[in-house]
Hints:
Distance between the termini: 58 Å
Helix content: 25-40%
Low-confidence stretches: none
Number of strands: 7
Oligomer: single chain
Order of helices and strands: EEHEEEEEHHHHHHHH
Number of helices: 9
Shape: elongated
Strand order of the largest sheet: 2-1-5-3-4
Largest sheet: 5 strands, mixed
Bound molecules: FE2/S2 (inorganic) cluster
Structural class: alpha+beta
Amino acid sequence: xxxxxxxxxxxxxxxxxxxxxxxxxxxxxxxxxxxxxxxxxxxxxxxxxxxxxxxxxxxxxxxxxxxxxxxxxxxxxxxxxxxxxxxxxxxxxxxxxxxxxxxxxxxxxxxxxxxxxxxxxxxxxxxxxxxxxxxxxxxxxxxxxxxxxxxxxxxxxxxxxxxxxxxxxxxxxxxxxxxxxxxxxxxxxxxxxxxxxxxxxxxxxxxxxxxxxxxxxxxxxxxxxxxxxxxxxxxxx
Length: 237
Ligand code: FES
């Protein structure tokens, strides 16, 4: 066991006029995660500490927070990889509901805008629409996205333009545009080529740097830009 100091940015809308820092001294095994630290605080020191979590295994994407200035999943951040004092904040550029919980509604609404589901009205050839390993390889990275919001919240374009679709929604569009079973390429491209869409991406790579699934998000967005140019689609209304 080792003692870590968790410096947590807190905000309770019913009590605070603005955010405040609070320090917690927590005993943790270096093999435990930052999420274990949050749980330990909630159980043993302050039951009002508010954070999201579900799977604790890097699957649900609900525990994303900013750790020492970089977005990460709390459940995948092991204490042995962190310094003795760890600074934790809610995800940037999303409204804080309480402590480490941010309002994800605008984030998920943007995902909805790109039609995040397979569209194909042709009758299936058999029991299912098969895909070759090569075709599946085209979407292999994009399908591992867990929609944690780390990428969009780390994007400077999104910080300045909350209407920007953001890397997560654009990656979702790429995931279906690249899917050889899908038939809605044109409609999706129209949806992402508006004023707050794909062309706002300046290839800053913050999204790639923070993605817990190591997805080359900027690479996917660059691929979409190439496709749009090839089809002579520059900006829709
Ligand atoms: S709790 Fe599910 S990803 Fe961290």
